[in-house]
Structures are given as C-alpha cells and as structure tokens.
Design brief:
With 268 residues, the chain is α/β, with parallel strands linked by helices. The protein has a single domain, classed as Rossmann fold. The strands form two sheets. It has a six-stranded mixed sheet with strand order 6-7-8-3-9-10, with helices on both faces. The chain starts with 20 loop residues before the first strand and ends in a 5-residue tail after the last helix.
Length: 268
C-alpha cells in the first residue's frame, strides 16, 4: 500500500482542512459479535501534527474508536467495522489494503507498558527488522530513543532487559519502538493511567515534543490531561460522538449540555 441516530457535532477549523488533515473518519461504526454497537456512526477530521484527545466515561467507546483507526479491532473475533477511515485519501478498510502496513504507518501505544522480554536495544531493533527496516540499526535505535527522551537514561545499558526499566521508562521505550517504524500517526490508549505523577508529566512533555513531527490521537480518562496536551478534543458518550471542537473552546464553552455536565463532574 502506498500512501501519499447519533448526536454528532463535527467542528473542523479552516486551518485543519485539506493538506492539514491526517485522518478523515466518516460514518464509523464498530459492532461486537453480540450485536452491540460500541461506536455509532461517528465522523470527524484529525488535524496533522497536533494532539487530538478522546474523552468520555468508562465504556463510552473511546478505546474502541481509537483501535478502529489502525484496524486493531480486527484482532478481536467477531468485531465488525463499517464506514471509512481515510488516510492519504485512501480508506484503510479497503479490501486491497494490508492491515499490517496500516499499523506501521499508524502506530499504537497501549495503556500498560508492554516491552518485549528482550534487551532495550532489541526492543527497537527487532520491531524494525520484522518490518524490513534493517539498515543502520544502531543509528535507528539511538534516534528512536532520543526522540522518546530515553537515550541519556539507557545509552550505557542497551544490552540489559527492557523489563528492568521503571514503568515510565518502559512506556517511553514502547513509544520509541513505535517511532522506529517511522509512522505518521501515533495512537495512544490512556498511556499514563498506570504511571505515577512524575512519569505522567514526563510522557506529557514527550507528547508535546513529538507533535512537532507526528500526529497524535490520545484516549484519556483525565480531563485535565486532555486540557494540558491537546489542540482538539472529542467527547464520546454511549458510542456516540457528542461534541468535537478545539480543546480550549470545548472546555470553556461546550455547545452540548451533556458535554458541559461531563466536564463539570455532574456525571461520569
């Protein structure tokens, strides 16, 4: 592959259209094998080289929606996805599109750090090798770790097990592993929920730096975090996209009463 009945409020700023759109989601529906719709006909545009946050109460469909953006839901038997996710104007759900290639260009960082039981070096190098990136592995490992703000902490122990790192370091290693595959978009599913406040601040600072080169979409249960790090925020409720707007507008003057009730803590 080459890349060049819901209440939906889709707000796309003029500067976020055309070449400034990284993903265009159209009428996305995700249904589980029991017939339950976890995501109900949502549509929105994701700006390039910015952070988009998806917020909402537990079980609202935000993680399922995130996983739909690189076809990760297909790894769950019986899950059915309809609609379009346009990446470089091509629908990633087109039958001719290879999902493995999609996941290389649209990477994923999970809630719990999941380093391979290998050395720090091999966590980066092995992931690169299986995707055919075999040139200058030493340089690739170093540059990936530098971009993840981890190089100075691990440069003298690259042969040690990745499992010996702290939780925050393991999560930055997983981000470095994703970066090594040279993606355009990085999806993050509550990447700091298992971390202490100091490690959380480190990841947030890293996200701020990474958006200079990558498009980042983050699911977070922490509304304060969404307010700190994102340019756009989507609020989901019961599988619906209730409101999507610039973060500073959504948190100050939401248009939907349900959004206002959620962000002020009256439910959720």
């Amino acid at each position: 592959m080459e890349y060049g009945n819901s209440s939906v409020v889709t707000t796309v700023l003029p500067q976020f259209v055309s070449d400034h759109v990284a993903l265009e989601i159209k009428n996305l529906v995700v249904e589980y094998r029991d017939g339950v719709q976890a995501v109900k006909n949502i549509s929105f545009s994701v700006p390039r080289q910015a952070v988009t946050a998806i917020i909402g109460p537990s079980g609202c469909g935000k993680s399922t929606a995130l996983r739909a953006l690189n076809r990760m839901n297909e790894l769950m038997p019986g899950t059915r996805t309809t609609g379009e996710v346009l990446f470089h104007s091509k629908n990633i759900y087109d039958p001719n599109v290879d999902p493995v290639t999609v996941r290389r260009h649209i990477g994923m960082v999970f809630q719990k750090p999941n380093p391979f039981p290998k050395s720090i070096y091999e966590n980066i190098a092995w992931a690169a090798r299986i995707h055919g990136l075999t040139d200058n592995l030493d340089d690739l490992v170093e540059s990936s770790l530098r971009q993840a703000a981890l190089w100075d902490e691990v440069k003298d122990k690259l042969k040690k097990s990745a499992l010996s790192l702290s939780g925050g370091q393991q999560q930055r290693l997983c981000i470095a592993r994703s970066i090594a595959l040279k993606p355009e978009i990085i999806l993050m599913d509550e990447p700091t929920s298992a971390l202490d406040p100091i490690s959380t601040a480190s990841i947030e600072n890293l996200i701020h730096d990474l958006k200079q080169q990558y498009t980042i979409i983050i699911v977070t249960h922490n509304m304060q975090q969404a307010g700190r790090i994102s340019e756009m925020t989507a609020f989901m409720l019961s599988g619906d996209l209730v409101e999507y707007a610039p973060t500073n507008r959504l948190f100050v003057s939401p248009e939907d009463e349900r959004t206002e009730r959620y962000i002020t803590g009256r439910f959720g």
